[in-house]
Amino acid sequence: MDSSQEHPTSCCITKETGGALHRVLCMQGGDDDSSYAKNSEAPASAISLCRPLLLKAIQSMKVFFSNKDEAESLRIADLGCATGYNTLATIDMVVDALRQQYINHCGFEPEFEAFFSDLPSNDFNSLFRSLSNIADKKTKQYYAAGVPGSFYTRLFPRGKLHVAVSLSALHWLSQIPDAVLEKTSAAWNKGRVWIDGAKKEVVEAYAKQSEKDLEDFLSCRKEEMVQGGMLFLLMGGRPASQQPENQLGDPDSRAKHPFTTSLDQAWQDLINENNLLRWRRNAGLDRRGDERWVQHSGVHEEHGGGGEGNKEMRWV
Fold first, then answer.
1. Using an 8 Å Cβ cutoff, are 177 and 206 in contact?
2. Is 146 in contact with 124 (CB distance < 8 Å)?
3. pTM (2 decimals)?
4. Number of C-alpha atoms within 13 angstroms, CB side, residue 56?
5. What pLDDT, on the 0 to 100 scale, is given for residue 268?
6. Which of 91, 218, 278, 312 is the most interior residue, by most CB within 10 Å?
């Protein structure tokens, strides 16, 4: 899957950073109308649907400590946590299920550590303000910590985690495949936002990157999980019968989805009408130089010398 999704994001890729995303990609922070916290209904629905599976998996776990005297804290990680209600609800669900299991089987409640992990650009300030507000209203359920970094690398010491969850996050790749960004490559995606309907070479480039990223993710978690621990993943997929270049399945879905040719055309229309240039001018941004980057939209404008016909829009 392409790295562009329906969640509000902030991202700017330059020639210096290449296709790497870990330093620049994040969900839109804050709590205003354009924030991820106010626009995450789709992930919330997916989490709600998988709740029975997650609870059943927790109930099937072995008990790590049989009595309170030998009990250590149980350590939980949310990988790709973002911010907002979904983040806190996920950890609360896991902690409550584990607490009930230990009360039922062992007669005591262990202590819990919850690690919220995402890229360094994530809005951890908003996340921990939300945690503080909750802690003021009820007894602390767990000790919280933030862990900035890419989940495609090691984030925790060996044998640290009892439960790790990653919900609606693994579709984000570690980087845009180099071949997709190279104009001379057979896999160049011509600056398109989405790979739905792309040619075979583009799909293969993303598939290869996705396979490598998933292998790296699982290898890291193998080292970090305790024996008998649980890794629970929720991620999008498509039927095996559906061709990989057909990401959305049917014309109606394709027409309604924001990240298809409709958005490509909308950006191009803005370029053609000079609206993006006017926005930059009104914002007081520097218009000098051959390359201009519009942050938070992912649009790269390249201007050749010679008029409107030389303008090109590229989503990165």
1. yes
2. yes
3. 0.73
4. 5
5. 74
6. 91
